[in-house]
Amino acid sequence: MAEAKKEKPAKGTLGLKRRFYIVEGDRIRREKPFCPKCGPGVFLAKHSDRVSCGRCGYTEFASKQGKS
Fold this sequence. Notes:
Distance between the termini: 64 Å
Structural class: mainly beta
Order of helices and strands: HEEEEEE
Oligomer: single chain
């Protein structure tokens, strides 16, 4: 049997660079923090309770506010 062809993504979709950076006038703002171990260029992934680096495994847990 012939396999169904996969649809190609529509042209003009945002690439990874546009998701990590926001252009404001003549300045670029980074959306995510950098990894302190790996240095600039390696972003930390945001999870519900932590931020973590996919390259080295560095993790910062969010402080729980509201606990007495």
